[in-house]
Amino acid sequence: MTRQRRPWLGLAILSLTALAAVLLRLVVARPLDGSIAFGWPTADVAGLRTGAVLAGACTGIALAIAGAMLQALLRNPLADPFILGGSSGAGLGVMAATYLAHVTGVLAWTSLGAVAPASVGAVLALVAVTALGHRRTGLDPLSLVLAGVVVSAMCGAAIMFLQQIVPHGLRGDLVVWMMGRVPETTPRGVLATAWVIAVGGLVFGIALGRAMDAAALDDDEARSVGVSLGRLRLLLLVASGILAAAAVAVAGPLAFVGLIAPHAARIVLGPRHAPLVAGSALCGIVLVVGADAIRQVLEIGGGRLPVGVLTAALGGPLFLWLLHRGPGATGTGEEWRP
Known about the structure:
This protein is mainly alpha-helical. The protein contains 14 helices and 6 strands. The chain is 71% helix and 4% strand.
């Protein structure tokens, strides 16, 4: 049997790896003497660490599934919410909502207070990138990447402008949030909404697995098996934008999680999208929760590295390697054929 015919074995391995990452985050610590300690925490500390695990797992699941959906949608292994501007758009949405809240005093940080503006920003950014990356022959992978860079830069400039005009006391928190961090305490409404979106995206992605398998072929072959590509692409674009927004609302923009997780899952599970979506979610947990555990013992300059720095350090080389591989890695080649 090939690995495509034994997805449950691969999913079991990934589940155990995700469980190991969760346990590591719960037990690892760095005492004041600078050593590395492992042990079950007291009740109060356990509550904080559990909150970080829930936030990190939710963020990893949402970003990983968004990445898997975008890669299927665009037939492009370089697709990722961060690279294509979705995360930056979501960040701009949250930043704009924060500024309006302080100017008008109207917006309350309810369960939808962060997720709703993040969703609008992410979806609009992805729509803009898709439109800019479209050519007469269809969606060009490298044009999409360049469009993503431009949209991300524009959103980043707008974010920095808003950072300068928000109240000074809020500026420091926003800077830390934009670097990507997994909070130990998250407003319950925001975290609950993000979990609903993440789990809903997981179920939605698995349900659309066969359609995404067909969409990975060329347009004529996909239509011949009854897949409505226009409807499917719209669904995947909106879903990936909302998933990225949920992650950004919780942890800020984390780079490359949506790129790394689907590739890691594809190595273990093969190209079929139903198990691939589930495997990507598990890999997302490993990446974000595992990176958060590692940062607990890395103190540089008197402080701990943000999680976003670690995910960028992992994902940047992978992105450059995929880009260096050329058309075979960035086009619609046989690696996508189920």
